[in-house]
Write a structure and sequence with these properties.
Blueprint lengths: L5 H13 L12 E4 L3 E2 L11 H14 L5 E5 L4 E5 L1 H10 L3 E6 L4 H12 L7 H16 L6 H10 L5 H14 L4 H7 L8 H10 L3 H9 L2 H12 L4 H14 L4 H9 L2 H5 L3 H18 L7 H8 L1
Parallel strand pairs: 2-4, 3-5
Antiparallel strand pairs: 1-5, 3-4
Helix pairs in contact: 1-4, 1-5, 1-7, 2-3, 4-5, 5-7, 10-11, 11-12, 15-16
């Protein structure tokens, strides 16, 4: 990716944020476009739309119409939605035949950023979608690839004096986005990218919620598959935690560890009958013979109990 100057990157993103709501520029007009002439953008980073929220928006559109025009860019045939896919989907549910749009000639890069910024204004945005969108914008701002962003952000947090220019760019970007500080993003949300890939895939492709995904991601690896299945079936955060607790209770204990703990328990040994203590002593001596002198922790406990 060719790197541009800091001023150029800040200026481009600032213009996109300023133009997020499609207010007509001089010589630019709104137009009504039939829904079947619009198509979603392949650059759209938002992968899931809450069905209930779409129905609520559709009801609002039936009553009031589409108050905020969609931002689109012209294609050879029809238009590609740059910002406003959620309104377009809700308009279809509402039975509308057309929606107002503002058409602008935008490059793929500009269209991607405009869609990202528009999506970041949504209150119901999935956390993984938010993280992916913000990482993409940070990559553009700092002239990095998305894969390089986490390490760079952590470096700027831990050693801010080494790159004050990057810190300034990040502060300005996050101030424009209105989604908290960049340091809070690094500490609280960026870590999601370290979660297991099946969990991230479920969040991206199936709309798995952040809180339940966190329970699955924090569970031991051997239980994550079962918990993920339950989460995708609709289990709540509390239900997942209860199930995880049951896994831990049902887990068979190491028999060797059980024996060692028993041999070290004076009260338990004292409760044995004389015959039982003699048998324990014989077994301990047999283990010592087989495994080597002193190999069995607590081997003297049984003799102490007998004596």
């Amino acid at each position: 990716m060719p790197k541009r100057s800091a001023d150029a990157r800040r200026g481009a993103l600032g213009a996109l944020v300023a133009n997020l709501t499609p207010v007509a520029n001089p010589g630019e007009t709104f137009q009504e476009v039939p829904l079947d002439q619009l198509r979603p953008s392949p650059l759209q980073a938002r992968r899931s739309f809450d069905p209930a929220a779409l129905q609520d928006l559709a009801a609002s559109l039936r009553a009031q119409g589409v108050l905020q025009p969609l931002l689109v860019r012209p294609l050879a045939q029809g238009y590609e939605i740059v910002a406003g896919e959620r309104r377009w989907r809700a308009a279809q549910l509402a039975g509308l035949s057309s929606v107002p749009v503002v058409a602008r000639d935008l490059s793929d890069e500009e269209a991607h950023d405009a869609g990202a910024i528009e999506n970041l204004q949504r209150e119901d945005l999935n956390v993984i979608d938010e993280v992916d969108l913000v990482v993409g914008l940070v990559a553009r701002t700092l002239g990095l690839t998305p894969g390089e962003v986490p390490a760079r952000l952590h470096a700027v947090v831990n050693r801010p004096q080494e790159d004050p220019a990057a810190r300034e760019q990040l502060e300005e970007l996050f101030a424009r986005l209105g989604r908290g500080t960049w340091t809070s993003f690094v500490k609280n949300k960026l870590r999601v990218l370290r979660w297991p890939q099946p969990v991230l895939q479920a969040m991206r492709e199936r709309g798995l919620g952040y809180s339940v995904a966190g329970v699955v991601a924090a569970a031991p690896a051997e239980h994550q598959g079962a918990l993920l299945h339950l989460a995708l079936s609709g289990a709540s955060k509390a239900e997942l935690r209860e199930r995880l607790l049951s896994f831990r209770k049902d887990k068979p204990l190491d028999p060797t560890a059980n024996v060692v703990r028993a041999l070290q328990n004076k009260r338990r040994l004292a409760a044995l009958s004389e015959q039982e203590r003699r048998r324990v002593d014989r077994l301990v001596r047999e283990l010592e013979r087989l495994l080597g002198e002193g190999a069995t922790p607590g081997s003297g406990r049984a003799r102490g109990a007998r004596d």
